[in-house]
Amino acid sequence: MGLVFSFAKGVAAGVGFCFCSAIGSLFSSCLGNDKPSTIPPSATSGRRRSVFLLIVSIGLAFAFQYGIAPALQPGGSTAADLPVSGDYLTDAWTSGCNDFGTDELREKCSGNSGVYRVAGSTTFFFLLAALSAYCKPSANREAWPAKYFLFLCLVAGTIFIPNDPLFDPIYMQLARVGGVIFVFFQQLILIDLAYNWNESWVEKADKAELEEGVDQGKKWLAAILVSCAIFYIGSIVVISLMYVYFSGCASNEAFISVTLAMSVIVTAVQLSGEESSLLTSAIIVAYSTYLCYTAVSRNPNDECNPQLGDEDILGIVLGIGLCLLSLTWTGWSFTAHSKLEGTSNPLSEDSEGEDPGKERGETIVKGVVSNQPDYGTNGGDVEDAKSSPEQTGISPNEGFSSSWKLNVILALVSCWYAMALTGWGAIETGGNAANPDVGKASMWMIIASQWLVLTLYLW
Predict the structure, then answer these.
(1) Structural element, H or E, at residue 145
(2) Residue 136 falls in which region: left (phi positive, over 0), alpha (psi -120 to 50) or beta
(3) Is the Cβ–Cβ distance between 118 and 158 less than 8 Å?
């Protein structure tokens, strides 16, 4: 009998070892290193894994805000069922929230602190990753299974930390600052992209005139006019619909009217200048209209916001799904190569393959994170990438010493999404699982960002 037991124990140990090895190999192939440390790290690889961690953190933030926080309220059956730690967790999650007058506001406070737990862990993780990448640039693509595990452990550990003072007010205030910095950065990038888009097509028109003959550049000028028409017509239609469906309260009507007036002003000012740019103005007008729509749809007043969803299963799924999608897209798009380096190109962002400018002797736009021509691409001169430091005369770390930028941007994004999900830290009624980003604070921050981008563009 003992022999059979020993044999079964050995088989179980062997199967367990094989299973763990297989899981480790799977994680290493999906999340681990993909190139030797002598080759500059792939921006695409590091970006993909980092943004996936951001997606995980946003999902956990929703779970903490609308799942754990309500269950740990005083008198709740879930907290009472927890052995030993139930009372402690209830006290930890309601710390700093007892001064609010109603149960709804106290639960809102606990839910916001749940978001701060996850977002704070995410911010801390990406700041440490930025420091590691600054000291060792290849760290941005190394040991991802361990990074995910440590991140989840960090988030789990915050469950036992009281809200006050670490999460609220300390992290809340830091996230407000980080969120404002990201919003400012966001507007600058949008303006830069609009200018670069216009300049790119104008240059293509001039080049076609020189290389292909007279009138060959008109197709690019026609593309500019068609794009302008689409943006302006679309903006007019959306503004008209907002007047129809979102009027009824003074704030919404003021936002829509200011958007319409400023759209006319920025277009007139731009066209009256020496270097007029109609396409740039059209993009700014369309973006301002989008921000206005976003702001009025955040209004918690149901008399002038027909988009407030009911807190049923479908409303919750749609609300959380759309919010998660928009936050994820923000994290992905604002960590693109062109965004980090300030070389926005809407037509070839994150393109792969060899840069065609090499064959024509044109100036090569270098990669954002690595400052290398073929950083993060599958093209470029492979032999150059494999060359030793002695052959190139460049230190292995010198060529991609700015890979920390990716993590800094994601740290700012984590601050921003913490504010987006909590109404910039305001404890007020109106938001719920079906409307996770509704609130007066969110509404005013979005319309303020619209005024910022219009002011920067006019300036």
Answers:
(1) helix 144-158
(2) beta
(3) yes
Cα separation of the two ends of the chain:
86
53 Cβ contact partners less than 8 Å away, ≥ 6 residues apart: 122, 125, 147, 148, 151
Phi, psi of 187 (to 5 degrees): -70, -40
- State if pTM tops 0.70: no
Indicate if the pLDDT at residue 140 is higher than 60: yes
DSSP state of 137: G
- The two three-digit tokens of residue 273, written as one number: 């200048």
DSSP per-residue letters across 27-90: HHHHHS--S-TTSPPPHHHHHHHHHHHHHHHHHHHHHIIIIIHHHTSTT-HHHHHSTTTHHHHH
Q: What is the structure's pLDDT at 39?
A: 60
Quote the pLDDT of residue 393.
46
Does 70 sit behind a cis peptide bond, omega within 30 degrees of 0 on the bond before it?
no
> Which stretches of 368-404 are DSSP H helices?
382-386, 389-392
Please tell me the total number of residues recorded for the chain in this structure: 459
Q: Two tokens at 56?
A: 């995980």
Task: Return the ∠ at Cα 78 (arms to 72 and 83), rounded to 5°.
Answer: 100
**3-class DSSP state for residue 435?**
strand
Q: Which carries the bigger pLDDT value, residue 319 or residue 220?
A: 220
* Cβ(43)–Cβ(376) below 8 Å: yes
Residues 183/170, Cβ–Cβ less than 8 Å:
no
- Contact status, residue 159 vs residue 89, Cβ threshold 8 Å: yes
